[in-house]
């Protein structure tokens, strides 16, 4: 159903490959992992998902529509005047969107703050997830967050979609950039593998590297 | 001022569980007791200013009220995009408290100075900017900021006036006479000294954003001089808008754009930028005429 929904989206040709690379992970998050529904979208103890890789949110919008957070009809007018759906998501305009993103390298720092805020308020079961692209890791701000989360053993889960799009690559592999984190390497299209990776609760920050086909 | 900030913020952390503190190493020792008492919401992220603001944005998204703190060049200049996106674009707020400001770190050179911090925040929407002229003006500002979720910047510097005016959110008139001279924050004492025998009106504010444009319009007749402790002309646009339709001349004094490649103390830099008593007197006489 989500794939069909995704096809309705227009106006995102530029970022179409990055939108599709995230589809399976976002589906698994919403269908199998996150404790959040349109009815609980404002509950303080809901699980949080932040799309740091705000480029190409078509898959995200398709899943939000399929799960009932936004009306299907919104998808037909993405990027148009008075549409709530831009080519980068805006939390102020879209129900269910936790963070407005687009400029790369912001989501992980925000997610660290969200996880800290939830922990400080005693929501021990609430989980925080953030999705990044492998090219996004080029942004230095991520590495401030990666090191700090490891240092304080902060239990949040970062997913990196690896479609080998970083200009200079990541010699040694992406996990080597996350010292102190537990790691799951999964096939970014295999829903069971993705779910297994996302369900890990290691008591420290957890990285799920979801490998998909190389960006063309 | 810094000590007052630390004492008040430590008390706020004790009193209000919604309050959080995020540091990037600067002042971490002074906040040691708070960091130990509230390890869940008094946080030192290390020398990571972008993360400091990002973490604050995340805390605010969960309903907490974060206070951030560092030297102005690191808190504002370095983390500008995080301030723009992780707070403003998310429609959340925080309380940013800087030290150092324009040239307190005179001996450290330009790397540790930020004359443009207020001008940078002026490119963004919804920021309250407070520039206390005395340490006793600081606690009420910090406590008021704990009671809402808006975006607030407190600029704390070493230079202080001889007395506090805690009620100077709007323009407060301290001397009545001819042309208006508006002194912002710690510029009050040098302005009062420079205008001691001049026929001018001197007004003071410690809250330049939002600027009390109504007060400005009421007090301005034909001439207005604004004296700010940061980049000269920062308030020129707002003053111009406030006086729209009123024929007037204006002069904007503050820190110059040119980098001063000398060290010394903040007093030396104030002198070079013409913000000491003698420099202000010269500028005012040039603008208003010797008969002022």
UniProtKB/TrEMBL annotation, chain A:
Domain of life: Bacteria
Gene Ontology molecular function, alphabetical: magnesium ion binding
Sequence ranges assigned to domain Transketolase N-terminal in this UniProt record: 15-198
Pfam families given in the database record: Transketolase_N
PANTHER family found in the cross-reference section: TRANSKETOLASE, TRANSKETOLASE N-TERMINAL SECTION-RELATED
Protein name: Transketolase
Automatic annotation (TrEMBL), chain B:
MF-aspect GO terms: magnesium ion binding
Domain called Transketolase-like pyrimidine-binding: residue spans: 1-164
Domain of life (superkingdom): Bacteria
CDD domains: TPP_PYR_DXS_TK_like (cd07033)
InterPro entries named in the record: PDH/Transketolase (IPR051157), THDP-binding (IPR029061), Transketo_C/PFOR_II (IPR009014), Transketolase-like_Pyr-bd (IPR005475)
UniProt protein name: Transketolase
């Amino acid at each position: 159903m989500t794939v069909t929904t995704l096809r309705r989206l227009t106006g995102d040709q530029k970022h179409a490959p990055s939108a599709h690379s995230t589809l399976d992970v976002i589906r698994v998050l919403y269908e199998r992992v996150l404790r959040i529904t349109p009815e609980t979208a404002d509950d303080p103890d809901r699980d949080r998902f932040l799309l740091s890789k705000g480029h190409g949110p078509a898959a995200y919008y398709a899943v939000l529509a399929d799960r009932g957070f936004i009306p299907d009809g919104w998808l037909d007018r993405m990027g148009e005047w008075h549409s709530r759906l831009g080519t980068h998501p805006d939390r102020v305009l879209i129900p269910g969107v936790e963070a407005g993103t687009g400029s790369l390298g912001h989501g992980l720092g925000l997610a660290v703050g969200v996880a800290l805020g939830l922990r400080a308020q005693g929501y021990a079961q609430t989980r925080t997830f953030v999705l990044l692209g492998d090219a996004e890791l080029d942004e230095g701000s991520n590495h401030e967050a990666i090191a700090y989360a490891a240092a304080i053993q902060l239990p949040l889960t970062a997913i990196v979609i690896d479609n080998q799009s970083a200009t200079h690559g990541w010699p040694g592999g992406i996990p080597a950039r996350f010292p102190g984190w537990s790691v799951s390497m999964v096939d970014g299209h295999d829903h069971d593998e993705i779910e297994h990776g996302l369900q890990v609760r290691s008591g420290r920050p957890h990285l799920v590297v979801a490998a998909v086909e190389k960006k063309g | 001022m810094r000590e007052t900030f630390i004492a008040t913020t430590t008390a706020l952390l004790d009193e209000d569980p919604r309050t959080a503190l995020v540091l990037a190493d600067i002042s971490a020792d002074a906040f040691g007791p708070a960091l130990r008492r509230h390890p869940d919401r008094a946080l030192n992220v290390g020398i990571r200013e972008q993360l400091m603001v990002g973490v604050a944005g995340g805390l605010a998204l969960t309903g907490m009220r974060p206070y951030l703190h560092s030297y102005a060049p690191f808190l504002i200049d370095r983390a500008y995009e995080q301030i723009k996106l992780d707070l403003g674009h998310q429609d959340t707020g925080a309380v940013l408290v800087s030290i150092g400001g324009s040239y307190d770190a005179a001996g450290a050179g330009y790397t540790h100075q930020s004359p443009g911090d207020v001008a940078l925040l002026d490119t963004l929407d919804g920021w309250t900017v407070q520039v206390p002229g005395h340490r006793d003006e600081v606690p009420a500002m910090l406590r008021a900021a704990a009671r809402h979720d808006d975006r607030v910047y407190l600029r704390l510097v070493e230079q202080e006036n001889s007395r506090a005016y805690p009620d100077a959110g709007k323009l407060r008139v301290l001397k009545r006479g001819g042309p208006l001279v508006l002194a912002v924050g710690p510029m009050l004492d040098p302005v009062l000294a420079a205008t001691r025998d001049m026929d001018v009106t001197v007004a003071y504010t410690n809250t330049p954003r939002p600027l009390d444009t109504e007060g400005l319009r009421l007090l301005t007749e034909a001439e207005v001089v604004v004296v700010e402790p940061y980049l000269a002309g920062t308030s020129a646009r707002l003053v111009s808008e406030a006086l729209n339709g009123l024929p007037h001349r204006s002069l904007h004094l503050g820190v110059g754009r040119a980098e001063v490649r000398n060290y010394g103390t903040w007093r030396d830099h104030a002198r070079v930028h013409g913000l000491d008593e003698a420099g202000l007197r010269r500028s005012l006489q040039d603008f208003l005429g010797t008969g002022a």
